UniProtKB/TrEMBL annotation:
Keyword DNA repair applies: yes
The name this protein goes by in its record: Mismatch-specific DNA-glycosylase
Pfam name, any one: UDG
Key words, A-Z: DNA damage, DNA repair, Hydrolase
Record domain Uracil-DNA glycosylase-like: where: 10-154
PANTHER family cross-referenced by the UniProt entry: G/T AND G/U MISMATCH-SPECIFIC DNA GLYCOSYLASE, G_T MISMATCH-SPECIFIC THYMINE DNA GLYCOSYLASE
Cited Gene3D superfamilies: Uracil-DNA glycosylase-like domain (3.40.470.10)
Length: 174
């Protein structure tokens, strides 16, 4: 179709690898992660003290300098995650596991419970650290999706994301 997948931002030994469902159509158009105007991702990171300031989607590659990478379980941009096929999830699960094994981030932050469910094959998890990681030695941390479609209050989301700092060596402050 018209919109191409966007580039991952990956490096060995990242502090946090953020994993989304897949890029939004806006991200596909711009080539930047979490680019939709309604997405609260960068605001959440700033308010949680994970980043030293509020970043814009156009600066997503700059977060790699802080030790933060980006990828998605499915590369194809869509309007909603409901458009992702079971085959895309199956393939994406294998590709994502290989990225985690290869790059060995300290923490893999799944931006949405559904992302972690598709990756791990598990259901009913709590927010935060998961007890049995798929890739041994990597902390798997589940956060709410930052999509504007999610109805959770921003303050609740920020509190959950703030917990990542306990595991990633992140001490930015606001």
């Amino acid at each position: 179709m018209g919109i191409e997948p966007i580039s991952d931002h990956l490096a060995e030994h990242m502090r946090i690898l953020f994993v989304g469902y897949n890029p939004s159509l806006r991200s596909g158009e711009t080539g930047h992660h979490y680019a939709s105007a309604s997405n609260r991702f960068y605001r959440i990171l700033d308010q949680a003290g994970i980043t030293p300031r509020l970043y814009k989607p156009q600066e997503d590659q700059d977060l790699l300098q802080l030790g933060y990478g980006f990828t998605n379980i499915v590369a194809r941009p869509t309007l909603t995650a409901a458009e992702i096929t079971p085959e895309e999830y199956r393939e994406g699960r294998l590709i994502l596991r290989q990225k985690i094994v290869t790059y060995r981030p300290s923490v893999v932050c799944f931006v949405g419970k559904g992302v972690y469910e598709q990756y791990s094959g598990r259901r009913g998890m709590s927010w935060g650290v998961q007890p049995e990681p798929v890739v041994e030695g990597v902390i798997e941390y589940v956060c709410p999706s930052s999509s504007g479609l999610v109805r959770m209050k921003l303050e609740e989301m920020v509190d959950i994301y703030r917990g990542i700092k306990d595991y990633s060596g992140t001490e930015m402050g606001n």
